[in-house]
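Extended Data, panel c. Modelled sequence:
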Amino acid sequence: MRATEGAQGNRRIVALAAAIVAVFAALGTLFSHHRSIGALSAKNQAILVQSRATDTFNLYEAKQIRSNIYRALLSSDLVRDAKNRTRLGSIAAKEEASSKDVLAKAKDLEAQASLEDERSESILRSYETLLFATTLFEFSIVLISIAALAHARLFLPLAAGLSVIGLAFFFVGLLRR
């Protein structure tokens, strides 16, 4: 009767181990998918901000070109009327002055895009780490299943070792941002 009780106890341990590792595998899958969505979202945000930065740099260049055209007109003496010369000079000065603010905004947007890109890369590394942990958990489930089917206790310590390593990667992946 004791042999039957021992075998039943082993089956319970194996079933409990499989259930626990399966829960960790499910959590790893959940968090890794969440991180992949976060990485894609951050990358999209980086692309949008970079696009805004490019548009803002283009606006800066347009203002610089207009200012240079007005100054070239003034330098060429094609406009001789004093009132028109004053107006063109004033417009050129306004374009020049406002272009500096636009350039500062473009540089800020570019820096923001760079930060978003770095953030997306960090989240992607977290995703990869969580995915690796999930793979280790899945291998552990396979080893536990083999141990249960073949009544081979040898696979249980190996599965436990893989699960512990998987847990380490799981927590590293969770903490990485």
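The chain has a mean pLDDT of 89. This feature is highlighted in the accompanying rendering.
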